[in-house]
Design goal:
The chain is α/β, with parallel strands linked by helices and 216 residues long. The chain contains 9 helices and 5 strands, in the order ααβαααβααβαββα. The protein has one domain: 3-Layer(aba) Sandwich (Rossmann fold). Helices cover 52% and strands 11% of the residues. Strands 2-1-3-4-5 form a 5-stranded parallel sheet, sandwiched between helices.
Length: 216
């Protein structure tokens, strides 16, 4: 990882020392996402309730400029130059990092829940959209959300690296996630308060790796 990429993680731990117990797993998550993106992969994210909002938040930070200007590559500029509105497009579009929030597919989720199995909606999306080399990030404060666990199981058989973002115990998800980030809290709102700076740091780190310009 680049120096700035690593610094993003160090900055997180300096501001939230209690998360030092999660340093290795956070670093592993960042490295796995970077490796996936370099090979053309993407990240699939899901969760319930507040964690569903977190899934949307994560995708928003990855798909556009977060803290670093993401200038278009020359290849992208060349393609856009052929458009009728090339000047406007090239002046405003940014390089995105591929990410999909599984919680936003309302029509698919409600149809599958009504017609088939409500607790398999995320699993169906992973089965339909995931491919080997992708990353699956399942967020569950308890670690026991059945729909997240089922989706994690499907991801694993598709050779997708699985990351679980949970509370202290890890719940049942700890037995399925390749990488478990279990923050040292047990109350839901306190767990959520720690999830946000972690995924912010992960997004900042991944962005730094690809767009900082730092060669190291």
């Amino acid at each position: 990882m680049k120096e700035l990429t690593q610094q993003r993680i160090k900055d997180l731990l300096s501001r939230y020392p209690l998360l030092s117990v999660n340093e290795a797993s956070i670093s592993a998550a960042v490295e796995s996402i970077i490796t996936s993106y370099k090979k053309g992969g993407k990240i699939l994210v899901c969760g319930n309730g507040g964690s569903a909002s977190d899934a949307l938040h994560i995708v928003g930070e990855l798909q556009k400029n977060f803290a670093i200007n993401r200038e278009l590559t020359e290849e992208c500029k060349a393609k856009l130059s052929k458009c009728q509105h090339a000047e406007y497009l090239m002046a405003n579009l940014e390089m995105g990092i591929p990410a999909i929030s599984l919680v936003s597919e309302t029509s698919l989720m409600t149809a599958f829940a009504n017609d088939t199995a409500p607790d398999l909606t995320f699993a169906q999306e992973v089965f339909g959209q995931g491919k080997a080399g992708d990353i699956f990030l399942g967020i569950s404060t308890s670690g026991n959300s059945a729909n997240v666990i089922y989706a994690t199981e499907v991801a694993k058989v598709l050779d997708i690296t699985t990351i679980g973002l949970t509370g202290k115990t890890g719940g049942k998800l700890k037995d399925f996630a390749d990488i478990l980030i279990n923050v040292p809290e047990t109350e839901t709102y306190k767990i959520q308060e720690l999830h946000l700076p972690i995924y912010h740091a992960i997004c900042l780190a991944v962005e730094a790796e690809f767009f900082s310009g730092d060669k190291r």
